[in-house]
């Protein structure tokens, strides 16, 4: 109880001192407010963007590998002439991997014709992506339907003229009507709608199914050359749940080298891409941005910290005789010490609170004004408060220590 009473009295003394010097308090808050605002604003923006991009990356699957011609990440000495001469993943690669891969949950051949026009009677949607995939597409991707179903085994094998629409495509073509069973026109072919993907919304990497039309691979073979470079063919391999990605990658690499008949020591003529490559690059990029935010905000906090330390020395000077009276009445050194440290901490907490308030207002402006959702995470709020407390302790310690060491008789005389 004595400790709580001491803390309460110290806070009351500190609050009275701040209230009596409003202008000085406001000016002292400015540096801390700007510093906390800059740091937390940068961290909030980075964390929001990082989480949105990571959510897009996670859609690719943490245990999924993509056999493609080009790597997602290029080295500094980019040998473009090596990559451009590589063969595109072929149907032969897909068939061989499907038969040989023992650690794979699914092996799928995919290709895509972008910027297509989809028609239904007088309605049309432009800029759609026409995706063609083998029957195992539902094993390599997590598919959610708001209406209808996926292709049956027979539809995939025979290349039936059926399709699954993205939510935006369905809305644009049918205006709220029931899409299932309707016939749309794509690249001169009439296709029957058997399913509609669940609406996902926009993401940072464009991985949404909302503007896609999915058709069976055997149907697409009669519409365009599915192995042509223009349609970016790839083989997607998803490993089994109880097997690590490294094991699946090792098996896949060995099988691809065997299929392409590459000799030992010969360079791969294919790329195995995975989500961890993107995640690592994101960590590096956003790490640099965070450091820049800390450096910029740190200078402001440093200036604010010196300003608060200066104000605290002035406050000690103004209240020297009061300190002497308190000591003469029995106040201990630690009571005087805590009194001024708490004043410094309260000052910094107020500055930090104003800074966090400005960041929150900024998130509202972006979310409701610019229609870009920005989230102030609890971890950043705690960080802002923590930094404020630390700066308050550092800035206030020496003035508080000097106040606690004053001789009561000399203090009263001053």
UniProtKB/TrEMBL annotation:
Residues 295-408 form the ABC3 transporter permease C-terminal domain. InterPro entries: ABC3_permease_C (IPR003838), MacB_PCD (IPR025857), Macrolide_Exporter_MacB (IPR050250). This is ABC transporter permease. It comes from the Bacteria. It is found in: Cell membrane. The keyword Membrane applies. It is a multi-pass membrane protein. Keywords: Cell membrane, Membrane, Transmembrane, Transmembrane helix. The keyword Protein biosynthesis does not apply. The chain crosses the membrane at residues 26-46, 291-313, 334-362, 374-398. Residues 25-253 form the MacB-like periplasmic core domain. Belongs to the ABC-4 integral membrane protein family. It comes from Pedobacter albus.
């Amino acid at each position: 109880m004595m400790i709580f009473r001491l803390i309460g009295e110290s806070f009351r003394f500190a609050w009275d001192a701040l209230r009596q010097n409003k202008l000085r308090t406001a000016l002292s808050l400015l540096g801390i407010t700007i510093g906390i605002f800059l740091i937390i604003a940068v961290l909030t923006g980075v964390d929001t963007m990082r989480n949105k991009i990571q959510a897009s990356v996670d859609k690719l699957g943490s245990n999924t590998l993509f056999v493609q011609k080009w790597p997602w990440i290029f080295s500094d000495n980019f040998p473009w002439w090596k990559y451009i001469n590589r063969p595109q993943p072929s149907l032969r690669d897909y068939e061989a991997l499907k038969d040989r891969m023992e650690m794979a949950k699914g092996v799928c051949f995919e290709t895509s014709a972008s910027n297509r026009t989809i028609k239904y009677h007088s309605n049309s949607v432009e800029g759609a992506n026409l995706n063609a995939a083998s029957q195992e597409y539902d094993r390599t991707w997590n598919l959610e339907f708001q209406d209808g179903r996926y292709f049956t085994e027979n539809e995939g094998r025979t290349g039936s003229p059926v399709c699954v629409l993205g939510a935006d495509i369905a809305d644009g073509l049918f205006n709220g009507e029931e899409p299932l069973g309707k016939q749309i026109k794509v690249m001169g072919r009439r296709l029957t709608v058997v399913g509609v993907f669940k609406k996902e919304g926009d993401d940072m990497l464009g991985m949404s199914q909302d503007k896609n039309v999915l058709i069976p691979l055997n149907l697409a073979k009669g519409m365009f050359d599915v192995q042509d470079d223009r349609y970016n063919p790839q083989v997607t391999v998803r490993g089994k749940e109880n097997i690590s990605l490294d094991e699946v990658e090792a098996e896949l690499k060995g099988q691809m080298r065997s299929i392409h008949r590459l000799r030992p020591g010969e360079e791969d003529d294919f790329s195995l891409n995975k989500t961890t490559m993107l995640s690592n690059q994101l960590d590096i990029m956003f790490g640099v941005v965070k450091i820049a935010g800390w450096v910029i905000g740190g200078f402001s906090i440093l200036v604010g910290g010196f300003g608060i330390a200066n104000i605290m020395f002035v406050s000690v000077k103004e209240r020297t005789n009061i300190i002497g009276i308190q000591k003469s009445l029995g106040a201990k050194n630690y009571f005087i010490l805590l009194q001024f440290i708490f004043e410094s901490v309260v000052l910094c907490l107020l500055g930090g609170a104003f800074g966090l308030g400005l960041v929150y207002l900024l998130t509202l402006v972006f979310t409701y004004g610019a229609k870009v959702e920005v989230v102030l995470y609890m971890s950043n709020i705690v960080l802002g408060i923590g930094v404020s407390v630390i700066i308050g302790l550092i800035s206030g310690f020496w003035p508080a220590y000097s106040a606690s060491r004053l001789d009561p008789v000399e203090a009263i005389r001053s």
